[in-house]
Design a protein that fits this description.
Keywords: Membrane, Transmembrane, Transmembrane helix. There is one protein chain. This protein has two domains: about 90 residues; about 200 residues, Immunoglobulin-like, CATH 2.60.40. It has four helices and 13 strands. The chain has a seven-stranded mixed β-sheet, with no helix packed on it. Strands 3-6-5 form a three-stranded antiparallel β-sheet, covered by helices on one side. It is elongated.
Length: about 300
């Protein structure tokens, strides 16, 4: 005997969504147009034609015709600027989404499929400007711990509630270290903000896979606007820390301050049993400088210095 099943689920009344305001609906239509149209679509062509036609009428017309020409020119320019703005915003959003996906899958390769390395030595030079902008120069060597290494990464961060508006101004360059006239060529790299915070992760993609036991040298230059702004304005102290996933033989942190600034420095994460030295003075250029040298620092230890204005 056949069994008839009846759907007894109780359904509530159908609720219609709130109607979007006209401006939001127009913005959504513009976004959809930018995503699904060609680079030079019909709307862009129409805007250009309106602008050119208006300019022509302004040039040769008079009276009411000239006024209409100005109106057409303004309409064409306004429409074109609006389309370009929406295009820029949308492609920036998609670029960030793709960066996050690449970061995610590189993390999967690193954690699950044996992409591993150890930092052998590390030199980080930090040049702080009077307005708090920071220029960093990081040179380091990694030793390959897997069969073939395709990429490696490191992360850095600002130690305060750094505004998101500065993110687009951060600039990164990655090269190999030049030794004896050899090296200095660029590596491909990807940058992404971890979980939309002020932590920047840099993924460096090797030009060819490196075999187990080999060494790869990197030189990374980073311009980070307002990274030390609270320190330079005297609001609060700042911390300069490093941490590595394997024991590192040698690490050095050199921090240079603007002329005329006097600072106080404390070591962080280091004890009397550690092989380290901290020097603070004036360099050859007459600028205050802090120089921290560390040897044989264990894995996952956060070590460095805390700096405050005197």
């Amino acid at each position: 005997m056949a069994v008839v099943r009846t759907d007894l689920a109780v359904r509530g009344p159908v609720r219609r969504g709130r109607r979007k305001p006209p401006i939001s609906a127009l913005r959504q239509r513009l976004r959809d147009y930018v995503v699904y149209s060609a680079v030079l679509g019909p709307a862009e062509m129409l805007s250009v034609l309106l602008g050119m036609g208006g300019a022509a009428v302004v040039a040769v017309g008079a009276g009411h015709y000239r006024t209409a020409g100005f109106a057409l020119l303004g309409l064409g320019v306004t429409a074109l600027v609006a389309l370009l703005w929406v295009n820029r915003v949308e492609w920036r959003r998609r670029d960030e989404s793709e960066r996050q996906l690449l970061l995610r899958y590189c993390d999967i390769l690193e954690n699950r499929h044996g992409q591993s390395w150890a930092v052998k030595n590390w030199l980080q030079e930090v040049d702080i400007e009077a307005n708090g902008d920071v220029r960093q120069r990081i040179s380091f060597t990694v030793v390959v711990l897997c069969d073939l290494l395709h990429f490696c990464s490191f992360a850095d961060r600002a130690c305060w509630d750094w505004p998101d508006r500065y993110k687009r101004r951060v600039k990164v360059k990655v090269r190999s270290v030049e030794v004896g006239g050899e090296g200095g060529t660029r590596f491909g790299f990807t940058t992404a903000w971890i979980d939309n915070t002020n932590r920047l992760k840099v993924m460096m993609h090797l030009n060819e896979p490196a075999p187990r036991g080999s060494e790869v040298n990197f030189l990374v230059e980073v311009f980070w606007p307002a990274k030390c702004a609270p320190l330079m304005r005297g609001y609060e102290a700042d911390e300069f820390l490093v941490s590595f996933s394997e024991t590192i033989e040698y690490a050095r942190y050199v921090i240079t301050y603007p002329p005329g600034f006097s600072v106080r420095v404390d070591k962080l994460g280091l004890t009397g049993r550690d092989d380290c030295s901290l020097n603070h003075g004036v360099n050859a250029s007459g600028r205050p400088e802090t120089d921290l040298v560390m040897r044989d620092i264990g894995a996952y230890r956060k070590v460095g210095v805390r700096v405050d204005l005197a």
